[in-house]
Each structure stands twice: as C-alpha cells, then as structure tokens.
C-alpha cells in the first residue's frame, strides 16, 4: 500500500496519454565468438549511443530464479503495512518517498546491498535509509541475494561485450569496464519496486519520476507489466513494451562519463496506469567508492578533449544526494 497524505495525490497525478512504443534494440549475450558476437557488440554500442537503453536476451539468468524472487517480493509487498514497516530496517523497505529531497511516487520498495548480506551505501543515491548490516537473512533475502549474484554476473558479461564493441577490451584479465562492477568493494545494489494498481478515478500516476541512474549500468526486469518509459534524444517519451523473459539495461551517468559522452545516460520514468501491479527488480552496478572516474583515455583519441573533470564515485554520490530526482547530476562535472 502507498499511503499518501492530503495533497500528495495531486502532486503525482498525470494525464492518461500513453506514448508510442520505443524501438528497443536486442542484444544476444549468448552469441558465439566470431561474427555473431561481433554483431552483438556492435548492436550494443549502437543502442548505447542512440537510446542508452537496450534489451538483453541469452542472458543465462535461470527463469526459475527470476520467478521465485519476483513471487517472494510480491508476497512481501502483500503483507500488512505494519509488518512491512517492522521488517523495514532489514530489507531497506520504503514507501512513496524517493531520495531525501521531497520526490514522491506511487511506489513502495526494498533496497539491498549488491554484495550479498552487505549493507548498500546508496538508494538511487546514498541519502536514503540503508538496511542494517547485522540483519538476519530470511528466505526472501536469500532469494534476492541469489538473484543479485546472477544478475551481477550478467552485468559484467554485458560490460565485457561493451568493451569489445568499443575496441577497448585489451587482453585476458584486463576487463576495463567489468572490473568496476565486479570488485568486492564495488558499490552495487538491488532495488525491488512495487507499483500497486492505480487507484480508481485516477487515470495515471507517477510511479517513479523521471531521472537518470547515477551508476555505470542498471539491469532491470519487471513482471510483464507496462509502465516504464524512456526519453528519446528529441525529448519525446516512448513506452517500453513489457517483456517477460528479457532484461533491460540502462546506461547510467557514470558510463556516459567513462565514454566521454558517447553513450547516453537514459532518462526514464515509470507511469502507473494499469490495473495490475508492477514489480520490478533493478540491479545497479556502481564502482568502488574511492574509484577515480573520468573519460577513459582509450576513448579520447589523439588530442581528444575530455568533456568531464575527474571525480570519485563517493564525490559524485555526495553531490547527487543534494539534488531532486529529475535534476541533471552530471552538469556540475562538465568542463566548461
Ligand atoms: O521500476 C522500474 O521499472 C524502474 C525503476 C527505476 O528507474 C529505478 O529504480 O531507478
Ligand atoms: Fe532508474
């Protein structure tokens, strides 16, 4: 349940128009080495340049794990509000408030550290409540941890294919992008969002307001329910048709910086206009806190100018924490 105070419903009410469907490219992660993999890597790079968003097939995450995690999460959200709030500190439960700066949505969520049983250091950013690290693991937590391990592995495989497509893969063991998400101290997390059906009389509500994700990549899936929309280059919104089996990947702010603006951190939002509830599970792949980030020298070319000044991931998060959801967090790191 999302309990809104007087006046809050009006803040998140939207007109009912659904935008046209986005032309989302598919990338087959299981393409065999050789021309098929090269084509997949090219498709991935093109999608990151065009939309900053693509669909992943051949991902290797077992369907039974996805279904079990999703069902367990839905079971949690169906429990009485008091019980959810009681368990809140152990699972990072929150409702309607996104971040600490007044953004509201028709959503309740769980927020877990991406390294199983570790406390996350950020929500969308680090300002939101973090679960207690000493929390005992329950069956839901165990399933979500197992899911996170599998999706994190996939995120690294996506980043390896991406490096190949960019021509910066280097030699074996030189995982220039994947290493940022694969390290034990990488700042990864899982967010499970539940968007209850829209209330009667309201054609459409903001579930999760427009924003870009701050990390390197986000790997997302939902229970075959529509609602996710992405902004195209011309600013128009396009809806993402639900997909029961594939995962979707967002380019995050940090990947836009690493590629010196070649890849686009995709603006996206969730609109609730359905009578069915939506459960989405989003893995955020972020770098270690002290990692220095800036455009990769391999992508600058000879005499190329860096569009961003270097920063650490901690610095970026601290600065982003002070912003509203929809704000452009990268502008303050752009070189004039
Ligand atoms: O729930 C979704 O489908 C997307 C949510 C989202 O964008 C986020 O949690 O950052
Ligand atoms: Fe997001």
UniProtKB/TrEMBL annotation:
Cofactor(s), names only, from the UniProt record: L-ascorbate
UniProt domain Fe2OG dioxygenase: residue ranges: 185-287
Short name of one Pfam family: 2OG-FeII_Oxy
Keyword line: Iron, Metal-binding, Oxidoreductase
Keyword Aminoacyl-tRNA synthetase tagged: no
A GO molecular function held by the record: gibberellin 2-beta-dioxygenase activity
GO biological process, one term: response to light stimulus
Domain of life: Eukaryota
Keyword Glycoprotein: no
PROSITE patterns cross-referenced by the UniProt entry: FE2OG_OXY
InterPro entries: DIOX_N (IPR026992), IPNS-like_FE2OG_OXY (IPR044861), IPNS-like_sf (IPR027443), Iron_ascorbate_oxido_reductase (IPR050231), Oxoglu/Fe-dep_dioxygenase_dom (IPR005123)
Recorded family membership: Belongs to the iron/ascorbate-dependent oxidoreductase family.
Protein name: Gibberellin 2-oxidase9
Organism of derivation: Zea mays
Lineage: Eukaryota, Viridiplantae, Streptophyta, Embryophyta, Tracheophyta
